[in-house]
Design a protein that fits this description.
Length: about 290
């Protein structure tokens, strides 16, 4: 089953690594709780793709409702509108060709959206974690870890053992006093510790995980059952970098009208982003 969740008015949902980590760990915790078998996940700036096997059709709606509710409960940024668009897209995948095409589509979403050159290069599609526990960081053996990193690893293990998602306050505590390389390692450790994606489906469908990755490089996959607007999502990365450099913060809905108008003009000047992308990034709803 392919599930598609979109931000309200197609607005950006994930601005920071902390946002991605929170949502991914929520997916993993709810999947364990509801016995949902996850086959693929791709977190894009303003939408989410999940391919999974559910216990029943009714459980799909309950699963999505729980994801949205828990994320909304934790989300730090002020929002006068809902975070997510009402409802969700859903498309059953009953035949092998449909399954193959869907997996390629979900894992290649960041490639089609200009966020990475290859599916395995994008951290938030989690494909690289099929091959390594720390694909985006330097491995740090526990015996060589600093005391702050050891404490953080122990806390991650505790949260995971109790099936508790990585809320923002927990993340701030975990990453406090860590060096940059330790932070990247800890992100990989959190993802690997929580990860419930069944990569075995890649071997089952494609012959092996390596064959799956090679297939993804030559086939984009398709999805005709769920409508998705295709766009250049790399613009949101450029906008995030510009906001970081301008040091304005990302709590846009807490800004006054004049402040938001000024920021909008600055971002247009720096990035050349279209009005559509600026509105979605700044949560200026139609």
């Amino acid at each position: 089953m392919h599930v598609y969740i979109l931000g309200h008015d197609s607005s950006v949902i994930f601005y920071r690594k902390a946002d991605y980590l929170l949502f991914f760990t929520i997916i993993c915790c709810v999947a364990r709780e509801m016995n949902v078998q996850i086959h693929a996940v791709s977190l894009m700036p303003n939408h989410v793709h999940i391919t999974a096997i559910f216990q029943s059709r009714d459980s799909v709606g309950l699963f999505i409702k729980k994801l949205k509710r828990i994320f909304d409960m934790h989300y730090e940024l002020k929002h006068t509108h809902p975070i997510f668009r009402k409802g969700y897209g859903i498309a059953p995948k009953l035949y092998p060709k449909k399954v193959i095409s869907n997996l390629a589509y979900v894992y290649n979403n960041p490639v089609a959206g200009h966020l990475s050159a290859k599916a395995s290069d994008y951290r938030w599609s989690f494909l690289a974690y099929a091959f390594s526990g720390n694909p985006f960081s330097e491995k740090i053996p526990l015996r060589n870890a600093s005391m702050p990193l050891r404490r953080s690893i122990k806390l991650v293990d505790s949260y995971r053992a109790h099936n508790i998602p990585m809320a923002y306050n927990a993340q701030r505590l975990l990453f406090k006093n860590l060096k940059p390389r330790e932070k990247e390692f800890l992100i990989d450790y959190i993802i690997t510790s929580y990860n419930v994606i069944d990569y075995g489906v890649l071997s089952k469908v494609f012959g092996s995980k390596d064959d799956a990755v090679r297939a993804f490089e030559i086939m984009a996959g398709d999805e005709f059952d769920v409508y998705e607007e295709h766009e250049d999502y790399a613009v949101y990365r450029r906008l995030s970098e510009a906001v970081y450099n301008l040091r304005t913060g990302i709590d846009f809905e807490a800004m006054s009208g004049p402040e938001l108008d000024k920021l909008r003009e600055q971002l247009w000047y720096v990035t050349g982003a279209s009005d559509k992308h600026l509105r979605r990034f700044l949560h200026i709803c139609n």
